[in-house]
Every structure is written in structure tokens, then in C-alpha cells.
Specification:
Layout: H1 3-38, H2 50-60, H3 65-77, H4 81-99, H5 107-127, H6 133-156, H7 162-165, H8 170-186, E1 191-192, E2 195-196, H9 197-233, H10 239-252, H11 257-275, H12 283-297, H13 301-311, H14 317-351, H15 367-370, H16 375-379, H17 386-399, H18 402-415, H19 419-465, H20 470-484, E3 489-496, E4 503-508, H21 520-534, E5 538-546, E6 552-559, E7 563-572, E8 582-590, E9 593-601, H22 606-624, H23 629-641, E10 650-658, E11 663-669, E12 674-678, E13 681-685, E14 702-706, E15 712-716, H24 727-742, H25 748-760, E16 769-778, H26 788-796
Antiparallel strand pairs: 1-2, 3-4, 4-6, 5-6, 7-16, 8-9, 9-10, 10-11, 11-14, 12-13, 12-15, 15-16
């Protein structure tokens, strides 16, 4: 075993040991609580607290039910064996009532009914008939107190996670005092020499309440505990005054710190010692409160701070004010920088940005032609097509086809007597045009990059100016909807509320039955609720089972994409060589955005392959750095134009598929048409922009198309269609085969292979060829009642 494996194994073992110790500690506390509640006798006759405690723990803390059962039976054993049998019968009857399928009673009613029926039968057997009126009164009081105590315990003993995640309300505090008072009445017999456990705990509790909540909390604790203890014993009701005044004085001494609380809590007992001789203020009492005061002084400050935060949570106005100040301060600085960016954008783009004059379809005569004796023959009334040849020369230079350039130059030499000087002047004019285009693209690239920076700053400022508690209202809305559906979610955090990229973390109680998974509730109930609230699908990203600080499950939800894309690629090189001028890339920028890149280098050589691959690589880098697509296209135009090789260009067909909203954005720089097949309809996306690196034409505009489920997208390089056959005829044939195959039930790989085999049966592919086929379909969530594909198949069958 390696050191890493040993370390991981040791950590797991330590966690298991720590969890086991925690369970034993909590189980011991429940055992002691059940033991003292079983010994709590009210009106010196009724024992009403054991069954309510069993019912609550059995429901909400099932793993600790055995500790409660043994503690209750052990406590009743000290009251007599008959009380043990009564408690056992009451628990059995309660379980029978709760498990009765056809009559579901509230828990408090079931507890009261079980206590009442068992006591009636038991007392009837003991008295062999109708018991005395006083006994009947005690039985009724025990049933009523069991009902009331069940209600108090339901408020106090919440689910385990709520002890750590929710603030304590006054209702919960009052319920805790009632249960604690019942435990104190069961501790009356725990007296060791001069030490009384109930008096010690009463003093400690009052002092701690004074430290946490000052006068109000300490007075309430003293009054409630003194009243309940006095009523339970039917004597010493004067202790109510002692406990209440103790809480008042301890709270008043809270300004003096812990010592002020301790001294203030002892003064009322000293006063009543001389004022009322009937109170049981003996040496046991004073010894116990002294020990309680001393132990109070040793309680760590962190425990009192935790309790204070639960009872009196700090207001968030200070934090919100500080956050608002920080937001305003940073926004002020960003706005200054934003003004600078805006000034630079206007300086570069709006004021001094003028597009270069594009070459006219009919070029003007060169200076050499103006001084030539054959000017009229070439450019005058006897025009022999010299203007058309020069126009074709500029065009072929832009396309970069050597054979076509050579053919045009031969025609010029045949008609021109000064062809050498004409070619020199044409090269100079072409160089000047490219320099102008390069200068224009440099300015436009900087302007677009400044615009992107401005947009990023605008977005940042807008996010900072948003309401700082906007997530809180969203979280409250979701929690309310979950409560309406009776889903126990004790913590919910909205990490991101951006449409299409939302992220929500929900903490739930683990599955309580064997057949249920931890994700069952999330898949079948929470996912549909989130879909209704935000009107977009969600999916479960991650499920984590946690044991600390209590056992729970954290489920992370995120926005699911509405569409998904399945694609296939057909690629071949001319004459089956190793080098192809075509390059492509299909990848996800993030789960909701799919990118498609197709580039065709000029020629079939290794240089053409290098050029197209370099263009694909640069475009991916720009997109990975969140550069705007238009800015990226113009940046690549500028960068590729600085290369040293002459006449090496590459086309770029770039598309983005928005999988969240179903949009197709297309940018083309010399790329071929993109086809969208929608049943019998064909949508074409075209562009007249020049290839990347050729700067005479600079416009690269975006085309947007709305997609639907079932659409098929086809993108291809120019090698698909032969230069010999009619272009329109080839396009019609290709689309006819594509429409015919797209509607079949074959896989997309089989579809594309069938299309290309059928097309090559009619036309020969004589150049490097790449065809990309993408099929857009809806994403069906796992909780959906039906799937469209299954529905359509069953309908057709």
C-alpha cells in the first residue's frame, strides 16, 4: 500500500470513528433525557412525558429510538414495575394507531389517545370497575398533558439539520423551557450530599440566559421554570418568586460581565433566606447554586456567542451598507476608466475611421497606357477588352489561383506592347491597395477590441449595480414553492441566476426508505418546480452525501441545455494524398454554445494544410479568451496578412450554435454556403467576404438563423463541387440526396456516408473535400412523461 492510499484509508477510518463517537454522545443525551422525563411526576400522580418523547424521536430521529426506549423503561422502573408495563403498553398502542392504514390521526392525538386508553383499561382492572373520581381526574390530566407536551416537543425537536441552519424563535425557546422544566421535576431525587442536580442546572441555565439575552431572557427563563416546577410539585410555589427575581437580578448584572451575572443571581436567594423562612433555602440549595455559578464562569465565550447568534441574529444593515459603499466606490473608478475607453474608441473608430475605397469593377487606365500610342486601340472606341483583363488580373490575384493568373497574364502580353511596365504598375497598385486594406484592418481591429473591453466593463458595472440581495428574493421564492410541495429543504443557495447558466445548491434530508434513492425527490419533484419557476430546463450536476455537521445530501442543479447536436464529418484529400488543404474543428465553448470551424487553404500542398490549421488554431484561441466573434475575424484578417508568404490565403467558415435558445450565428470569410434542411425546406446562409488574409474586402457580417428541433445543418468546402460540371446542377443534386436521407431513421454517420456515396455516383470529387453534417434535437429531461422520438415511432407504427 502506498503512502497516499494509507493516508486516505486513515482519514476514512478517522471519520468513521468520529461519526460513531458523535452518535454515541447524542444517544447518551437522549437516554438521560428519556430517563428523567420518565421520572417526572406531575400532580404527584400523572406521568405524561415518556410517550410524547418516544413519538417525536421515533419520527424524526429514528436511529436514536432505541436509546429513548431503554431510557424511558429504566426511568419508569424506579417508579415501579407496574409503570414499566403501562409505558410499554402505551408505546405499543401508539405504534398500532399510527400504523393503522385507514385512519390517519395527528401525532399529538395518537399519543393522547394511547395514554388515555391504556390508563382507562389499567385503572379499570386495578379497581375492578369504575375508578374513583380523583383517579379519573388524574387520568384525564395525564392524557391532556401528553397532548400538550407532544405539541411542545414538535416545535422543539425539529429535524436535525434545523438545529444548525435556522434561528431559534420564541416559540421554540418556550417549548425548550417546558421540556427542560419537565426534566428538572424528574431530577428531584438526584441529590448527592450537599449537591442537588436540578437546583444546580436551574442556576446555571438562568445565568447563561442572562449572559446571552440580558434581563428579558433571564427573567422569562426564571419565571417559566419556576412556575412549571412549582405546579408539578403542588408545593413550594414561592420558588416561582425566587426564580423570577433571580433571573431579573442576573440580567441586570449582565453589564458587569460574567461576575456581575454570577453575583446578581445569588443576591435574591440571600434576600429570601431572611424574608421567608418557609422556603427550602438550606445548605443544599446554596451549595448547588454556588457550584452552578462557578461552572458558569468557566463556560467558553464561543458557546455563548453561538447561542446569541441563534437567538438574536445580527442585522445585516451594516454589511449591506459596507457592500453598497464598496460597490459605489469601485463603480466610480470603473466609470472613469470606461470614459477613457469610450474616448479611445471614438478617436480610433468614429472620428478617423474611414473605409478604404474598394476597387471598381472597371479599372482605370494605367499611367503607362496614357502615354502609349495604342491608347485609343486598347481603351478608346476600339476597346479590345484591356479593362476586363486588368479587372480579371486583380480578381485572380485575390483568389490566389496560379493557373488563372498565368492565363490572364498571357492574354495581357498578347494584347499589350508594354506588358512589362504594365505588370510593374499593376503590382504597385495591388501592393498599395493591400497596404491600405492592412492599415484599415489594423484600425478596425483596435476599435473592435476597445469595443469588447467597453462591453465587458459595462457588464461588470451592471452586475455591481444590481441589488445586493437579489438572490435572497429568488431563494425565498424557491423555498416557498418547495414548502407548498411539502419538500423539506433546510438550505438553498442560488450561486448563479444568469439565464441559461443558473446554478442552485439544495440541501435535503437523505432518503428514509430503502427503495428510494437520494436523487428521487430531486428528479421527480424539484426539477419540474425549477422548470416552472425559471421557464428553462434544469439537470442534476452533482450529488454529495455529507455527514458533518449532520447527515444530509447536497444536490447541485444547473441550467440544462434545450438542444443537443449530433454531428459527423466526411473528409478526403485530392488523389488520396497525406496533405489536405481543408481543416476543421467542432467543440463546445461551454455546455450551451457549440462552435464549428471549417477552413480551406489555397491548394493541396503542405503549406495549404499548415495555413488552414493555423487559422483554426488561432480562432480557437480567440474564442477561448472570450473575444467577440466579429473582433476575432478581423483580428485574424490582420494577423494573417502579416505573413511573409505571398498569395497564401485561407477561407474560414465559422458558426456558433446556441443550444439554449436554438440560434445559429454564421460568419463567412470566403466560405461556401451553409444549408439548413427543415423537412422539404432548405435555408441557405451565404456571404461574399474575401478569404482571411486578403484585405481588399473587409466586411465580415454575421448571419443569424433560428433553429428548430430536427433541423440538419450542412457545411462544406469548395472541393465538394467540381469546376467542370454545372455548379447549380451539382448543388441541387447534393441537396436532393441530403433531404431524402435526412428524414430516415439511420444514424447520422450512416446518413452522411449515404449522401456522399450517392452524390459521387453522379459527380466526381476532384479536389480536397470536407463535409460537416449536424443534426439538432431537443433535450428531453429525465423526469419527462414521454419522449418525442418514442411517441412518433409509436404513432407511425
Amino acid at each position: 500500500m502506498t503512502s497516499i492510499e494509507w493516508y486516505n484509508t486513515t482519514n476514512v477510518d478517522d471519520q468513521k470513528i468520529g461519526l460513531k463517537k458523535k452518535q454515541i454522545l447524542i444517544g447518551s443525551l437522549f437516554f438521560l433525557t428519556a430517563f428523567f422525563l420518565a421520572q417526572s411526576v406531575v400532580f404527584e400522580a400523572a406521568v405524561p412525558f415518556s410517550v410524547p418523547f418516544w413519538a417525536i424521536i421515533r419520527t424524526k430521529y429514528r436511529e436514536y429510538a432505541k436509546f429513548v426506549l431503554f431510557g424511558s423503561l429504566a426511568g419508569c422502573f424506579f417508579l415501579g414495575f407496574g409503570q414499566v408495563l403501562i409505558l410499554a403498553l402505551q408505546i405499543i398502542l401508539y405504534e398500532c394507531i399510527m400504523r393503522f392504514r385507514y385512519w390517519q390521526l395527528p401525532q399529538s392525538i395518537a399519543v393522547s389517545l394511547a395514554v388515555l386508553l391504556v390508563q382507562i383499561m389499567w385503572q379499570g382492572v386495578m379497581y375492578q370497575g369504575l375508578p374513583p373520581v380523583l383517579v379519573q381526574f388524574y387520568v384525564g390530566c395525564e392524557a391532556a398533558l401528553a397532548l400538550i407536551m407532544t405539541l411542545f416537543m414538535q416545535v422543539l425537536f425539529v429535524n436535525s439539520y434545523e438545529w444548525f441552519t435556522t434561528h431559534w424563535t420564541y416559540e421554540k425557546l418556550g417549548s425548550g423551557l417546558v421540556v427542560f422544566a419537565a426534566m428538572l421535576t424528574g431530577m428531584q431525587t438526584v441529590v448527592i450530599s450537599y449537591f442537588s442536580l436540578p437546583i444546580f442546572l436551574l442556576q446555571l441555565f438562568i445565568c447563561f440566559g442572562a449572559l446571552v439575552g440580558s434581563v428579558p431572557l433571564a427573567t422569562v427563563i426564571g419565571a417559566v421554570l419556576g412556575t412549571l416546577i412549582g405546579v408539578a410539585k403542588l408545593s413550594f410555589t414561592g420558588m416561582l418568586s425566587v426564580a423570577t427575581l433571580t433571573g431579573l437580578c442576573a440580567g441586570m448584572g449582565a453589564k458587569g460581565g460574567r461576575f456581575g451575572v454570577a453575583i446578581g443571581s445569588i443576591l435574591p436567594s440571600v434576600f429570601f433566606l431572611f424574608y421567608d423562612a418557609t422556603l427550602p433555602l438550606d445548605s443544599v440549595y446554596f451549595t448547588s447554586i454556588a457550584i452552578g455559578s462557578i461552572l458558569f464562569l468557566t463556560i467558553p465565550k464561543k458557546y455563548s456567542d453561538k447561542v446569541r447568534d441563534k437567538l438574536f441574529p445580527q442585522r445585516e444593515e451594516v454589511l449591506l451598507a459596507r457592500q453598497n459603499w464598496l460597490t459605489e466606490h469601485v463603480t466610480y473608478k470603473l466609470e472613469h476608466f470606461q470614459h477613457f475607453v469610450q474616448f479611445m474608441k471614438e478617436l480610433v473608430f468614429d472620428r478617423f475611421m474611414t473605409a478604404p475605397v474598394e476597387a471598381a469593377k472597371e479599372v482605370a487606365p494605367m499611367n503607362t497606357c496614357l502615354s502609349c500610342f495604342r491608347y485609343d486601340h486598347c481603351w478608346g472606341a476600339q476597346n479590345n477588352g484591356m479593362d476586363k483583363l486588368m479587372t480579371d488580373w486583380f480578381h485572380m490575384k485575390g483568389v490566389g489561383k496560379e493557373s488563372a493568373i498565368h492565363r490572364v497574364e498571357e492574354q495581357i502580353r498578347y494584347k499589350c506592347v508594354k506588358s512589362t511596365k504594365i505588370f510593374e504598375e499593376l503590382d504597385t497598385e495591388l501592393y498599395r491597395e493591400r497596404i491600405n486594406g492592412q492599415y484599415f484592418h489594423g484600425k478596425k481591429m483596435i476599435a473592435l477590441q476597445l469595443r469588447d473591453m467597453s462591453n465587458h466593463l459595462n457588464q461588470l458595472i451592471a452586475e455591481m449595480k444590481e441589488d445586493t440581495i437579489s438572490f435572497v428574493s429568488v431563494e425565498k421564492d424557491i423555498v416557498e414553492r418547495l414548502k407548498e410541495a411539502n419538500i423539506e429543504c433546510f438550505q438553498l443557495d442560488v450561486l448563479s441566476n444568469k439565464p441559461g447558466a443558473r446554478k442552485i445548491v439544495c440541501a435535503l434530508a437523505p432518503a428514509r426508505v430503502n427503495w428510494e434513492k437520494d436523487t428521487t425527490l430531486a428528479e421527480r419533484m424539484i426539477l419540474p418546480i425549477l422548470y416552472e419557476i425559471f421557464d428553462e430546463p434544469f439537470e442534476i450536476e452533482k450529488v454529495v452525501a455529507c455527514e458533518i455537521p449532520f447527515r444530509h445530501v447536497q444536490i447541485c442543479f444547473r441550467s440544462a441545455i434545450s438542444f443537443e447536436v449530433e454531428y459527423d464529418i466526411y473528409s478526403m484529400s485530392k488523389d488520396a494524398t497525406l496533405y489536405s488543404g481543408d481543416s476543421h474543428a467542432l467543440f463546445q465553448l461551454h455546455p450551451g454554445l457549440f462552435a464549428i470551424l471549417l477552413s480551406d487553404g489555397m491548394g493541396q500542398s503542405k503549406e495549404a494544410q499548415h495555413e488552414s490549421r493555423k487559422l483554426i488554431h488561432l480562432m480557437r484561441e480567440c474564442l477561448n479568451y472570450n473575444m467577440n466573434p466579429e473582433t476575432a475575424m478581423h483580428t485574424l484578417h490582420y494577423v494573417m496578412a502579416l505573413k511573409q508568404q505571398d498569395d497564401m490565403y485561407a477561407t474560414l467558415d465559422f458558426a456558433l450554435v446556441d443550444l439554449q435558445h436554438g440560434d445559429l450565428w454564421s460568419w463567412k470569410a470566403g466560405g461556401m454556403s451553409t444549408y439548413i434542411l427543415r423537412g422539404k425546406e432548405v435555408l441557405k446562409v451565404e456571404s461574399n467576404a474575401a478569404p482571411v488574409g486578403f484585405l481588399s474586402i473587409s466586411a465580415v457580417e454575421a448571419e443569424k438563423r433560428k433553429l428548430k428541433a430536427g433541423d440538419v445543418i450542412l457545411m462544406h468546402s469548395d472541393g465538394l463541387f467540381s469546376s467542370v460540371a454545372d455548379w447549380d446542377e451539382q448543388e441541387e443534386t447534393f441537396l436532393a440526396f441530403a433531404q431524402q436521407v435526412a428524414s430516415t431513421n439511420k444514424t447520422i454517420q450512416e446518413k452522411l456516408t449515404t449522401i456522399m456515396q450517392s452524390f459521387q455516383g453522379y459527380f466526381e470529387i476532384e479536389d480536397d473535400c470536407t463535409v460537416l453534417m449536424l443534426e439538432v434535437t431537443h433535450v428531453v429531461p429525465t423526469w419527462a412523461v414521454f419522449r418525442p422520438a418514442q411517441y412518433s415511432m409509436s404513432k407511425s407504427s
